[in-house]
Every structure is written in C-alpha cells, then in structure tokens.
Amino acid sequence: MAASNPTGNLFDEAVEVQAAEHLGTRYELINPRSLTTMVRVFLDPGHPIRAVPGCMVAHSESVNIQGKLKKSFKTMFGPDEARHQTMTAIEKPGWVLLAPGFYGDLRAVTLSGDMEVYISDGSFLACTDGVTTTSVRQDVKKSMFSGSGLFVKKAKGNGVVFVGGVGSIMEWNLNKDQVLTVDNDHVVLWSKGIGYELTKASAGLRSTALSGEGMVSKFTGPGRVWCHARNAAEIAKWVYSTVPPAVGA
User: Fold this and answer.
1) What structural domains and CATH numbers belong to the chain?
2) What is the pLDDT of residues 36-68, one digit of tens each?
3) Which pLDDT score, from 0 to 100, does residue 124 have?
4) C-alpha dihedral over 58, 61, 63, 66, to 10 degrees?
C-alpha cells in the first residue's frame, strides 16, 4: 500500500536510489544491482509486510515488528507466518529498510493475477501483504541431489516479493521451448509453468550437492528464471581454507 515518504531523502546524494511502485506498494532499491543492495519499503497503517528474521537494517519510529522464528516439525509445512516477522506501521506511515544476510544483490519480483513463483531455500527476504507464501516439498528425486534443499517456497497473489542472492542476480526470460541449464546452487527463483528437470552436469560443470555428483537444473520455456552469480557453499569452503589451523591441531 502506498505511503508518503515520512523522512524525505534518507540517503547521501552519492547513494543510488531506484524508486518503484506496484499495486500501491512503494519501495526504493538502494545501490541496485550491486553487492550492497538494500530495499526501503514504505508502509501505510494496516498494510504490513512479512520478512525473514535478521534482514531488518533500520525502520522509522512508527513501525512495530512482531513475531519470532518458531522451529517445529509442524512449521516446516504450509503457510509461513510462524517463520516470519510482521512489520506494521502504527497510526502513521512509516518505512523499513531490509537487506540480505550476505554480500549480494536484491531484487523485487512483482506478482499479479494468477502468477506464481518458486523460490530456492534461503533466497526469500520479504513480501507485501497481498502475497501468500507456502513452503512446499520438492519431488524427492529432485531434492536429493539439489543444492536448493528439500523445500522451496511458493509465492502467489498480488504484490511484491523481495529476494536476495549471493553476488549479482540475473534474470532470463525464456521463449517457448528455449532451454537454460543452471547449476543448482545458483538458482534463486523460477516462475510457475516453466519446464523443470534435474540432470547430471556436463563435463566441467560441478555442483556442491550432497551426493557429490554434478547436478544441474534444466529449465524449458516459456517462463522466467533468476540466478545469482556466486555459490555460497564454495565461498564457505574458501573462507575455511584461509583460516589458520588451531595450535596443536
């Protein structure tokens, strides 16, 4: 829901700000298409957003945040309210500033009508109140070898979904029968209806899947696919390799 800017220009003139609006929701991408991208979402009273814990950078005085992560077997399935925080403007318009947990890009994906998207584990950041998200279980054969994990998030409705990536995020718009092959650990999001199958990678391509075998996702258009440039597991391995061994180890 649209809200007036209650603070004026919050950022230094040197910071690039890309403003946008979808179905009444106003937001600003801060340093878009970079490794330090953030999003400021403007809120009207009664029109909250839901976000994963830990992604909030700052908020205006009028915003109230409720909810905490509840871990149980039941919360693994169905609607995501138990795993999200609700951010609401109280009495007067406000804003929240959100960012991914790692260096990387952030994108706003607009939904309307019957459009649905599927989001890889760990890529979802937040959504507006017109969007419903549900954690769904992937096909076992697919998830066994997929870096995206056993569960993915399905988002549908009318509003905006914000997703984060490791490194820059790229989008492909596939035409009918056009094929795109992506290493599983680089998949961020894909649209409903696109053809999707898991297959062994060609020589030279490798996934960090638990099976140890190189597996890739093969998408067939029409549809849209978002991917990020870096592999979080490979970054973790590199960081670990730079840590000196403990004395006496």
Assistant:
1) 17-240 (3.60.160.10)
2) 999 999 999 999 999 999 999 999 999 999 976
3) 96
4) 80
